[in-house]
């Protein structure tokens, strides 16, 4: 199932959401630390105001530079790190693909590229969850989301245990999988109606 707007990107500084949700209109999106757009679909984090940010978030945001490029193709999502500093991401579907620990946070080095969402793995997870019932299927809501931080990592190997302890990070919600999930949830029919958007 293909959505007209393929994702929603939300920017956070620590545990505070900053700026409005960003909904790209093209399949390729640039997210950088600058203060104005140059062309096409750009999210310029330097233009977003957060009066409560601290020195650490300000310093991190200044070093994002060219940031990342997201490319959406055939239901999958890819990231290119254009910055001089690494980015880190957590994605259930990539963890499934790698058969890795569910707490794995992947480090992507400068000029590196990686798939960060797998539509095939989401499809498999949905297929496996449906026979287990509504609650198991509803739990796939988080599988359709990717978390990505700039410069600072998190997870078992860091003193920052969760992404909302990192200074600058993104949450990317994949619309197509969420629409697909909602359709299945409606068909399963819970006692109290809940969808992935509840």
Care to describe what's here?
By secondary structure, the chain is of the alpha+beta class. The chain contains 5 helices and 11 strands; from the N terminus they run E-E-E-E-H-E-E-E-H-E-E-H-H-E-E-H. It has helices spanning 55-62, 92-98, 119-129, 134-138, 175-188; strands spanning 7-13, 16-22, 28-32, 42-44, 68-73, 76-81, 87-91, 106-108, 113-117, 145-150, 169-174. The strands form 2 sheets. The chain has a 6-stranded antiparallel beta sheet. Strands 4-3-5-6-9 form a 5-stranded mixed beta sheet.
List keywords for this structure.
11 strands; globular; 5-stranded mixed sheet; 198 residues
Number of contiguous helices: 5
Share of helix, binned: 10-25%
How are strands sequenced across the largest beta sheet?
2-1-11-10-7-8
Segments where pLDDT lies below 50 for 5+ residues? none
Average of per-residue pLDDT values: 90
Q: Helix/strand/pairing class, anyone?
A: alpha+beta
Distance between the termini: 20 Å
The number of strands is: 11
* Shape, per Cα inertia axes: globular
Largest sheet: 6 strands, antiparallel
Question: How much strand?
Answer: 25-35%
Radius of gyration: 17 Å
Map the helices and strands.
Blueprint: E1 7-13, E2 16-22, E3 28-32, E4 42-44, H1 55-62, E5 68-73, E6 76-81, E7 87-91, H2 92-98, E8 106-108, E9 113-117, H3 119-129, H4 134-138, E10 145-150, E11 169-174, H5 175-188
Short description:
The protein is α+β, with helices and mostly antiparallel strands and 198 residues long.
């Amino acid at each position: 199932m293909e959505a007209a707007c393929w994702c929603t990107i939300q920017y956070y500084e620590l545990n505070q959401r900053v700026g409005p949700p960003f909904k790209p209109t093209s399949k390729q999106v640039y997210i950088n630390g600058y203060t104005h757009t140059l062309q096409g679909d750009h999210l310029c984090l330097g233009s977003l105001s957060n009066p409560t940010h601290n020195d650490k978030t300000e310093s991190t945001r200044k070093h994002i530079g060219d940031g990342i490029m997201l490319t959406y193709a055939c239901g999958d999502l890819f990231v290119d790190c254009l910055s001089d500093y690494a980015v880190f991401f957590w994605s259930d579907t990539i963890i499934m693909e790698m058969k890795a620990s569910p707490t794995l946070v992947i480090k992507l080095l400068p000029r590196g590229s990686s798939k960060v969402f797998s539509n095939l793995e989401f499809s498999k997870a949905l297929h496996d969850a449906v026979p287990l019932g509504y609650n198991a299927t509803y739990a796939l809501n988080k599988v359709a989301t990717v978390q990505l931080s700039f410069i600072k990592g998190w997870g078992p190997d860091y003193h920052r245990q969760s992404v909302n302890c990192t200074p600058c990070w993104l949450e990317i919600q994949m619309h197509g999988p969420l629409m697909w999930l909602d359709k299945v949830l409606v068909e399963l029919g819970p006692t109290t109606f809940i969808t992935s958007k509840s």
